[in-house]
UniProtKB/TrEMBL annotation, chain A:
Signal peptide: none annotated. Keywords: Cell membrane, Membrane, Transmembrane, Transmembrane helix. It holds the Pfam family BPD_transp_2. This is Branched-chain amino acid ABC transporter permease. It is a multi-pass membrane protein. It is found in: Cell membrane. One of its GO terms (cellular component) is plasma membrane. The keyword Lyase does not apply.
From TrEMBL, chain B:
It comes from the Bacteria. Belongs to the leucine-binding protein family. Pfam families: Peripla_BP_6 (PF13458). GO terms for biological process: amino acid transport. Residues 44-403 form the Leucine-binding protein domain. This is Substrate-binding protein.
UniProtKB/TrEMBL annotation, chain C:
The keyword Transport applies. It comes from the Bacteria. It is a multi-pass membrane protein. One of its GO terms (molecular function) is transmembrane transporter activity. The chain crosses the membrane at residues 17-35, 42-64, 98-123, 190-216, 237-258, 270-298, 310-329. Its main location: membrane. This is Branched-chain amino acid ABC transporter permease. InterPro entries: ABC_transp_permease, BCAA_transport_permease. The lineage of its organism: Bacteria, Pseudomonadati, Pseudomonadota, Alphaproteobacteria, Rhodobacterales. The keyword Magnesium does not apply. Keywords: Amino-acid transport, Cell membrane, Membrane, Transmembrane, Transmembrane helix, Transport. GO terms for cellular component: plasma membrane. It is found in: Cell membrane. Pfam families: BPD_transp_2.
Amino acid sequence: MLGLERKDTLLLIAVAFITLFAPIILNPFPAGSALAQFNAGYPDLMQRFVIFGIFAIGFNILFGLTGYLSFGHAAFLGIGSYSAVWMFKLLSMNVIPAIVLSIIMAGLFALVIGFVSLRRSGIYFSILTLAFAQMSYNLAYSVLTPITNGETGLQLTLSDPRILDGASTGGLPVTSLFGAEMRDTTTLFVGPWSWDFSVGYYFCAVLMLLAFYLSVRIFRSPFGMMLRAVKSNQQRMNYTGLNTRPYTLAAFVISGMYAGLAGGLLAAMDPLAGADRMQWTASGEVVLMTILGGAGTLIGPVLGAGFIKYFENIFSKINDGILHQWFAFMPDGLENAMVAVIHPFIGKGWHLTLGLLFMLVVIFLPGGLVEGAQRTGRLFRRRDKNADHVESDAARQRAAAE
Amino acid sequence: MRRQNFSRRGLLRTGAIGGAGLALPTIFTSSASAFTNNPTGSSVTLGFNVPQTGAYADEGADELRAFELAVEHLNGGGDGGMLNTFSSKALDGTGILGKKVEFVTGDTQTKSDAARASAQSMIQKDGAIMISGGSSSGVAVAVQGLCQEAGVIFMSGLTHSNDTTGKDRKANGFRHFFNAYMSAAALAPVLQNLYGTDRKAYHLTADYTWGWTQEESIAAATEAMGWQTTEKVRTPLGAGDFSSYIAPVLNSGADVLVLNHYGGDMVNSLTQAVQFGLRERQANGQDFQIVVPLYSELMARGAGSAIAGIPGSQNWDWKLEDEGTKAFVKSFGEKYGFPPSQAAHTCYVQTLLYADAVTRAGDFNPCAVVEALEGFEFDGMGNGPTLYRADDHQCFKDVVVVKGAENPQDEFHLVEIVEVTPTEQVTYAPDHPMFAGGALGECNPGA
Amino acid sequence: MDAILIQILNGLDKGSAYALIALGLTLIFGTLGVVNFAHGALFMIGAFCAVTLQKILTLSVTTIDPERTDFLGNPMKVQTPYVENWFGPEMGATIIDWAVPLAILLAIPVMVLVGFVMERGLIKHFYKRPHADQILVTFGLAIVLQEVIKYFYGANPIPTPAPSAFKGSLDIGVWLGFDPYSIIYPYWRLVYFFFAGIIIAGVFAFLQFTTFGMVVRAGMADRETVGLLGIDIDKRFTLMFGLAAAVAGLAGVMYTPILSPNYHMGMDFLVLSFVVVVVGGMGSLPGAVLAGFLLGILQSFASMNEVKSLLPGIDQIIIYLVAIVILLTRPRGLMGRRGVMEE
């Protein structure tokens, strides 16, 4: 189906199913119950899941296939966001032109930066991309403030021209797709549960499915094979008289455009573009997402993205008061002891938990979360070589390549 | 419409499958209520969005303490703190409009993106009806914009940039903290008394919007009293080592160094300026001086003995003598064992002001709250008589001018109060050029 | 002229810190082949050794002074450090005053121990793993270490002043025939510069002139052959990790009077030190030192008003700009070897 092999089709269908029913899947606990704290099914976070999923999928096309580790991909995310917000300010609140421009701009920057950086390989390439991204960040934060609005971030104002929409009256206009407002949300209450279905989420989700489909096609195409060949032995490729650089550059530009799309979508969901998006920590985050999920696998980066965003948004919000509620059933002394033990890991300590989990995952699951899923899968299933999970060959290839 | 039909059908199916114990599902849409997150139960949720990681984490922790104290007092716990001294007597310790106050917390990370994500989750997931907190202007402006769009009230925490209630002002946003213009207006006369009118100032400024507005304000105010500005140098945020910016000051012909830095930058630039011996130097026949326009007692602690004698300004200080301050310091000190910072104070007061406005309006609707806060005059909150100006949602009140203590008796007495500058002196017109270019717009109740 | 000289001094001073961190990073990379993202955290832990010693020295007995009152109006609690009780007020105050230099004595064993534990407990298992995994696990470790420090010491910078004997500044200009006060430089920064010089010289001498160093250098060149000769190279590499950690830690201890330590100072230095290492050439110790000083000096020049007015914002990006130019003109950095980290 769709030019895919059967197992890839199954994977795509599974991803599509999960994405479309995410509002229900991610809210497994009834609203108002003590565990509702762990629900992630609210529009903003779900949007972030799929947007950073797109970002990581794109990064994986470069890193997973060619092995080139870019440490500056956040720059393209930021450029995408700035382009999109400028489009909202100047042209129209419709998201289509904004997203198109953000993909194009990110692609152009990726072409230039990639052309220069790909002259080197290994860590020299990483540092070149890092240097470009940090330069963009530092300049966006200070000297380029007229374009980027610096620390505060580029925002919409009432006085923007918005040529196609005409002057706005009253409040700030909202981003929309031909009239369907991105922030429009329908909430369903079923018994004690409540599920939010938002226009913005489904818009992002559809784009992510397209992006995912495209990445599967790239992985399975001759172009993808060529990129893997670059990863396993670039020298040999060069000796056979083949110039690899156009291929790697193409991969770099494609992954830059994915990042631009993600940046544009971030701005389309919430029309603000901050310089923080381009900082090296943001570049590092996408590297972590990809490796954590399983570099070189199709679904891994999406899982990694979800994992990190979940921690950032859910764990940081658990505070002592909530802990006391959870353990309220215990005797007082025990309750306080439990809270004291858990306290350093939640709320303001969410970074600590994240750091520990990074270490645990890397130490025990070298192939990332995908490998973890496979191992658990194997526990429950008789080992059958032919019915092996679709991801395993990607994971195996990765292990072999390194 | 079609999507809703689809949802209903899908839902009925789910209901039928898992149905045994489930009652027939009822379907509401979120647009049923008049405004965003209308509290319908017995409690109301406030969102406290403070930096818990990053350079301002300690300030964030202090803000959180103040919020917890404010909620305790609103719900009738503790000794009531400033509720006893507040000039408005609408609050009676039974929550807000009889609803118990609950709160959720989040981490801004001092990044506009993360702060917005955190605030967004409070609004969408936890049903927060008001967002407060924060320790930087970038975050305040970003979250204020979000609250305007989402239709909830934003009571900003520590934010000192002119822009928050200037070009980025919003109808749903309110600032109790003072701003760079007020700092400059309050400091200038004190500087004149201390150092005279014949001075040449050299500015080192953190290279981002807050730094720029403060540099502009201070330069304008000091030039008005006769000082010259020899140089304005921008330093990268988080530079760490400022030596290459400080060294040229020595031979620039300037005799005053103005450090438009905050947080870690302030600690480092000030310590290093003192190490370079600036304070022992003479220039133009006068003693060389250093000025730090925005002070923070937490940062003063970081700079240690370097702050001795350095003048600056604060929104509030726990050593003030009025009844409101005393009540607040007492309840905060007894609960946590040390006096509150100005960040804690502004967050505490903002929470009480919000609760009071809702109570006086008799309605949680953001537009009713805006109406109740606009032009509201109050007293007993530690800053003397205060006005929440309707034109820009900025509080106008006295400004505290302080200087670093020479021989602090303990770590809580690092700064001493020089003067309390009266409100009239720091008031400006709503259309002052430094605040121009913004519009409040209309209040947005959301939904 | 004097303006340029003073910026050269500033650059040397900045460069000392960069060079020391980059030196340790290169030692670890060159010997063990591990990309250590936790190296910034080692620098930070070193700085907190100074903070810890200062805290230990100022551990106090609490007595109640009924004459004075605290901020709540209760009787004042007066803290007297134990050292002042034991050695008398003056001697005690002097000891506290010298906390930072004394912290070197504490930092050396602590850092070597931290290095050993890190290498034996974690890094050892990653020698054969891809660099990406090494980066991820050490990055995770860096986060954990800094969060632990934050848990105990808070997020605010902590003042750690230099001994009062080093508080002033030296008028170097007079020596060189300039007008008085044209080039003055703080004593402690000069101390830091000489300290860095000694450490760098020491590390080089150690590798050059001792048998141990010779074996390690041989191991850096060809690990397998050295192993075949029956030399336990692993044990020596563990020691090298301890040494690298100690170098980073000492750099941190001595830097505290210049930069009040906070828990994220390691991350702030991490990216920069990687740029330094790469510009110098991966695996080259002289390259790391050279690049450290070069970037320090260029950064200082870029911060001058004259330069900034020509190219606004140049001081923000100079390091990265130089890195790009050097990597494009010299493929393996200033002194890098072929084939290192290029797979």
